[in-house]
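[stage:ingest] chain + small molecule (zinc ion)
[stage:ingest] validated
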Amino acid sequence: MLEIRNQNLNTPAYCHRCGGTAQLKPGPALFIAGTWGAICQACAEKEAPALLFQMEMARYEFEARQGHPPHPGGQKWYSATGR
Ligand SMILES: [Zn+2]
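[stage:predict] done
[stage:export] tokens:
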């Protein structure tokens, strides 16, 4: 089982499912529930696609709060939602 946890690392991490690389960025990320065992995007997609989607939404929020528009059109999105 996976869960979304907030963390501060900005580093590649070992994926605890496939042994590949999980890219950690500060903010919400997916981990094996109850642990800090990182998990890569591909494994998250296979194991918990709904949770991955939730995590991406949380990331979107997080990045907006940091003042970094998540994509080039981000500035427009900001004003449209009154933030
Ligand atoms: Zn993996």
